Amino acid sequence: MSDKKPTPEELFSTIDYKASEKDWSKPHIKFKVGTYNHSGVPKNVEYLELPNARKWQPSDDDWQLPDNWKEIIIDGIKERLDKFRSLKIFMDICVRCGACSDKCHFFIGSGDPKNMPVVRAELLRSIYRNDFTTAGKILGRIAGARELTLDVLKEWFYYFYQCTQCRRCSLFCPYGIDTAEITILVRELLNLVGVNIDWVITPVANSFRTGNHLGIQPHGFADSIEFAVDELEELTGVKVEAPINRKGAEVLFVSPSADYFGTPHYYTLLGYLALFHEVGLDYTWSTFASEGGNFGSFVSHDLMKSLNMKIYAEAKRLGVKWIIGGECGHMWRVLHQYMDTINGPADFLEVPVSPITGTKFDFAKSTKMIHICEFTADLIKNNKIKLDKSRNDHWKITFHDSCNPARAMGLIDEPRFIINSTCNNFYEMPENTIKEQTFCCGSGAGLGTEENLEMRLRGGLPRANAVNFVHEKHGVNLLACICAIDKATLPPLMEYWVPGVEVAGVHEFVGNALIMKGENERKVDLRGEPIGEPEPELEEKQ
Amino acid sequence: MNILISAAALLILILLVIVGIEAAGLEYFFGVFIPYMAVVIFLSGIIFKLIGWARSPVPFRIPTIAGQQKSLGWIKSSKLDSPATILGVVGRMVLEVLLFRSLFRNTKYETKPGQKLVYGSAKFLWIAALIFHWSFLIIILRHLRYISEPIPSLVPLLQNLDGFFQVGVPELFITNILIVVSLAFLFMRRTADPKNRYLSLTADYFPLLLILAIAITGIMMRYFTKVDIAGIKTFAMGLVSFKPVVPESINVIFYIHLFLVSSLLVYFSFSKLLHMVGVFLSPTRNLSNNNRSVRHVNPWDKPVRIHTYEEYEDEFRDKMKAAGLPLEKE
Ligand code: SF4
Ligand code: SF4
Known about the structure:
Bound molecules: iron/sulfur cluster
Order of helices and strands of chain B: HHHHEEHHHHHHHHHH
Oligomer: heterodimer
Structural class of chain A: mainly alpha
Shape of chain B: elongated
Number of strands of chain B: 2
CATH architecture of chain B: Up-down Bundle
Strand content of chain B: under 5%
Shape of chain A: globular
Distance between the termini of chain B: 74 Å
């Protein structure tokens, strides 16, 4: 953010829904600091063999595009129209009813009319009309067509990197027009001429090389898992096994890499480790597939595929029978809706069966991969683990449905069941802000950077506002979620809009409540905070 | 601006007919040639578009899910909003197409003092859209009586229902009022709200005005300007039996009505009106949420550049060894 961070009151007061600008067809982007992301580092663009690696920034006047950039983009649109029926349909049938217009968190938080999903899509649609439709060719402006210019391209960059591919708009559209789909495709187009952001390019390059987006090398991975094992022993008195790259294990476990490197993700990791140990799961981690999150999916179907491929490849190499995936949002969009298509069929694996409960996870009989919440919910339902809910009594919890588990999978009741089985104080946010109608954290799809903070705080406003509602009404002090991006970006969001609310993964509660064989009496939770009393730090803040 | 252009375009269309009929005596042109041409363009346009859409494959199964998935047996799944079966998808589509289910979900939010956002349901768009589309459909079906002999029994049934209140002579059809009111509302909401005004194009106002003009000319013929119904029926029957005759007695207002309908048909496949057909092909609505149990095949799937485990181990072998991690090659 620029010099001085505006206070929440100031930021809120700048939101203006009057759409004072009258005509959106003439682009003029001011790259205001705090509302856009830096460009991809040339070294990593090159490493990924993507076109037009160079030093540039979005705020530059000259973007150093190839001479024939327009041709490249128009050909790119043509190719994608031929490959994606979704794109053709979405370009042709929007009636501009406006049902989607105020459903986007970026519009709600910024008031910028181009952040209405329909207008975001129109930014591309107007070019489509101009070059691919009869009406547009003949009637031009009157038919809502406009020519592709550098300003249009800059506008694409600005607004298609102000979409977190959350698909909330698609839910409300009478034809299901999915701006996320359009965003992915426009980002593909931008990549064709070397226009990209670093918080996608560098994580993708890292994932490609080291298996995870943070670029953690195998020994570093082993270290952090080992560290977590020691820490868990200190907290519980139980020494758990956490095998890595072990051939012949029954299950491969893949989680987002932030789980073993970020906070509060880390407490979720401790929860996984405790749980797997307690039920005696025969599993392994992998350093090669040490990332479930797929930054490729934010920019291109090809990069998504090339990163996702590691999971099945590693399952095959290690000879496991099936796979469990950790808490992550976009990761599960890819695993649920794409993986089987892009890198399947996984015919070398077996239909997942819980070795503890015997439950056959038929709904994953083709991908052979289940969500950790499905695994745990099944354990709890079958009384296979002992839980002491009171160990989470210091938390008053609400649950944020991450966009993709909600709107791409329908994983809605599983995490709630786990929370209700491990905690005593659970409060839902207002119904228009949860489950399938959930609001995005505002920082997904590569937008979670420091330099983009103002936009993130704006985009996260609707979510934060709903949290504030339960915070004021019930004294909620913990926002639970099942997504690595959430865990990274909700804490600053809460700190800004709703101070006094912490963020945690669902398996942190499991780890807290889990009564382990041979454990010491638990005086502290996985965070090392005293159990059973409100967090002292929180009280200070209030 | 957008509104002006739309209104001007409509006016030109109307003037064309008036001049054509009154001054140039082009009854045959406007009564026979144009309607035939319009129907041909309408049908071929839709077919052309459908083929175009169908040519592009659906590489990924990307339904937008609106309810609990089918997972563990004891968790109740949402059969319509997260359909795991074809039947569920059919149900979802039927509700979408006939009752505009997604639009029903519509909310609006307001900002309240103290930096609060409040969400409430917003059903007006849904109600107006539903009323408009259903009225339009019923009115079109009622018109079957002009182009069929004997008249299908559905028509009098609809007429009776529609004229249920039995007011006025000729009796007043409810749909006639509803369509005008709903169109007026749909038009107004575009102009009244700054958001909607911002996102509306000429192509949004024009069809509203065009259909409104069609409705009004129709209503005028029925209730105000007396037209020769028998003559029109003879004429319409002639058209559909491909033996066109143009009776002298037909009023110009009928030609305006007919020409605007023809314009709508021509306009259809070059415009957003295609949503009527396209909605059936929307991949976020017409696919089931069975992604993990049934594999979806992408017909253009192609290999991409990958980084294999061997390459990975080659790069990190020493470090892996030092960390005690198992290796493929020592
Ligand atoms: S809801 Fe759908 S049809 Fe309506 S404006 Fe938005 S994208 Fe277009
Ligand atoms: S996908 Fe989400 S972020 Fe993108 S336009 Fe739709 S509502 Fe906004």
